[in-house]
């Protein structure tokens, strides 16, 4: 693998090496049993002293990620996930092939191999609540005119009719925008990735909320960014802390999920939205506003998006239309202006020559005519599930367990007492068919976290209830001998 | 923009600066009228002497890319393409936002805005020859079972049934492979991009044919690779030259289009395929075998792919199923083994969480049952067009104009006498509604080229004939006063 060392950083070199290797081991990119390079070899490769490498290896050993034996060297420990498949060919040379994938937590946590009866790890909506049959019926109306269109390459920006529908949708939500300022992407993930590959390079400072969406961390670290995570409170990202840090570490980009934040569920207040925009203006940096959830509010409408107040093209706004309609269609849009937009379109062309027209034309009639009505009933259905989730937690969770009750989105962020070993809980839960997202993957650098994220919208209510109860019981077993503390909501 | 200077390079610093700026200006990323940074400012930014920057600016001026005026500074010249749109907002700060897009020739040359009556610039197939109506009819058979599948996220690797169809298709073509060694991508472009983002970083040496596919140059330069282009002859890439260069510049990756190469049409001989694979094995580097055209042969079947002989996972093979079936569906596959495959899948997850299931499920029945039969008739149709193209050139091209007669693919690579100013020809042709691809964009670093690429499959035979005749006449006008030379095929 490629290890980027920053010699001017306040982070010690041995910790930088530790972090890089830990990220790769925890992502499964360095499989169990892999021999790490010898201390002598790695120190000469990185031009650091052997003591530095030796300290990094000791650190990894203390994290139980590697096992070192005198005279034999260090090996990735058994606890990590074995990923590489065996073949009959001799592929051993491949292990020396350097790559630029520092982290791959999406791959590690979300691939199809993960089938759970009580599927709480994925922030998606139960297929039965989605209008997929309707959308498939819409494909029957694809006319011969469409057929000719589809035989040609689409435009890099995406289908103009669809972008017009998106423009109307966003305008109704306070974002005054025209189709020309919109780019169709293959899901919000691609939107984040396009911004990163266009504007973020090695050493650029990217601020994110702590915690945040794990897929965004994957993206920005893959660009070699210096990711700095900003603590949150009940009003969202701590802009005061961000402001202070910007003094010494000027931002290239600030990534935020201001509305029903993933994973915490917290919404950034209007006042802080304004402060954030002011900050971007004074530093001439980009804000990436990722907005998967603003239409999924269960009490009152959330505040207007940051993009709605953006007069000078500082905000790149990313809106998924996959999650609430048809995840399998991978449709999202990115709103940006001026040369920022032009450069994103240029990057899109290099990436994949534009998103498929078939999915765009298929979703068009639904998004144009029936989305709003669908969202009304979807909100109702998911609010019911949220109620079930919160009630079940209230009733069965051990008293030491606390959570934040969200007013929108698909997740509950649960804080466990520090004596709970989350990887161990994961294994026990897995045996019962329960999956959840360990909070640690929502931090850059594998920070310790006592949290887990439960997504409550992918299973039906009965399954949700019984699965959550089982999980609470497992937690109860673990905590059986611990002291009872007072319960309060917490981030 | 971000300028990467390599101080150990044999290329002089002022030429590195020239190349970076020229690439951006020629891509339209620095629009007409943009003021370049002052010599003092850029020299301090890059930590080079003012003389170096001043030489770079003089070089750009001699290329007619910028205009410098004493006391006023240097501006991007009018001849370059104006791209950035105007708005009512003040977006001027955006011009100082550094990006990592060194080049964007795909964006510059292939976006929809380019509508020509005689469309010869795009290597695509006339929509009427594609089975799009059939494929749309297939969407009507998408069952409710499929509908449930589509409401969920797909897998990162792509639909298993589709990968099984791809595996059969490739096995029939001598590539013994199973579905697990295949990754579905959004077009071949994304396949190239995934390999680059996973395995290529700043300074890594990437070898390519000279000339090559412009979209691949965009991708590898965007990763900061040191791109080295290897001359070709009638047997394809000059492996002898490549071998010598590898001594001093060991390869990280070799990108090749061995069969009916784009843009030249030349096919790499079997002997050289073996040499290339041997070379990769001795340097432990990857070969990226891009294969858009092997099914489009018009005389005899081409030699087996390099991948067919790959025993140890050195070759990443990329096969588009968009071009010959449904470009609007953006479906291709990447074949790789071992940890190379695992890492590509991890990169795919970060990029877009997997390609849309709708397009995969829609194309499945056609690709499974009717592709081979479709290819038979497609070959016949396109062979007819090739004949028309070659006959028209033979009859009407001025005698100083030469070309290589391809035995497959969609392009004719035409060499013009050096006195033809190709940008000027482009403007004149554009007025007549004729588009072609200027050869210069098929070289890294904007190398001078006397070639143009004509794609003969996107228009019907009559349009092809009359457009090519017009183009020949334009060339005749230009060459009216030049000496007549003997005609022979040439690369």
Write a structural description.
The structure is a homodimer of 491-residue chains. By secondary structure, chain A is an alpha/beta fold. Chain A folds into three domains: 13-92, Winged helix-like DNA-binding domain superfamily/Winged helix DNA-binding domain (Arc Repressor Mutant, subunit A), CATH 1.10.10.10; 118-129 and 373-479, Aspartate Aminotransferase, domain 1; 143-369, 3-Layer(aba) Sandwich (Aspartate Aminotransferase, domain 2). In chain A, 41% of the residues lie in helices and 13% in strands. Chain A is built from 16 helices and 16 strands. Chain A has helices spanning 13-26, 39-46, 50-62, 105-110, 132-139, 144-151, 160-172, 187-199, 214-222, 239-248, 270-283, 338-352, 357-369, 371-396, 422-431, 461-479, and strands at residues 66-69, 73-76, 118-119, 182-185, 205-210, 226-233, 236-237, 253-256, 286-290, 315-320, 332-335, 402-404, 411-415, 434-435, 437-438, 451-455. In chain A, the strands form four sheets. In chain A, strands 4-11-10-9-8-5-6-7 form an eight-stranded mixed β-sheet, with helices on both faces. A four-stranded antiparallel β-sheet of chain A has the order 12-13-16-15, covered by helices on one side. The first copy, chain A, has a two-stranded antiparallel ribbon with strand order 1-2. In chain A, helix 5 (132-139) packs across helix 13. Chain A is globular, with a radius of gyration of 23 Å. The two termini of chain A are 35 Å apart. The relative contact order of chain A is 0.13. The model of chain A is unreliable at 80-86 (pLDDT under 50). Chains A and B meet through helix 4, helix 5, helix 6, helix 8 and helix 9 of A and helix 4, helix 5, helix 6, helix 8 and helix 9 of B. Chains A, B: This is GntR family transcriptional regulator.
